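Q: Structure tokens for this one, please.
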Amino acid sequence: MNLKAIAMASFIAVTAAPLAAMAADQPKAAKSQVGKYVADATVTTKVKTALLAEKNLNSLDINVETLNGVVQLSGFATSSEQIAQAVDVAMRVDGVKDVKSDIRLKTSTEG
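A: Here is the predicted structure, written as tokens:
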């Protein structure tokens, strides 16, 4: 397991426990909302971890957000192949219902 994956796994462990504890103290309607938030946060983390594990993909330039299982990718890539790769990786993650990509190609002026 590489260093990026270890860091992401640590992040999951640190953030999931407080969210689960918070859900236990809430009324039923609030628990449902917290549950959805936790599920989306988990999907986001899984997608980020999967992107970090991909070779030939600078995933640190890609942002990931999730709402109701729909993943939104944004940021920059150096080729259209990398954009397609990021979308493909995200689609294969368990819990992802759909992927929307707003990843843009880097130009020579965008560092």
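A few notes: The longest strand covers residues 70-77. The chain has one domain: 3-105.
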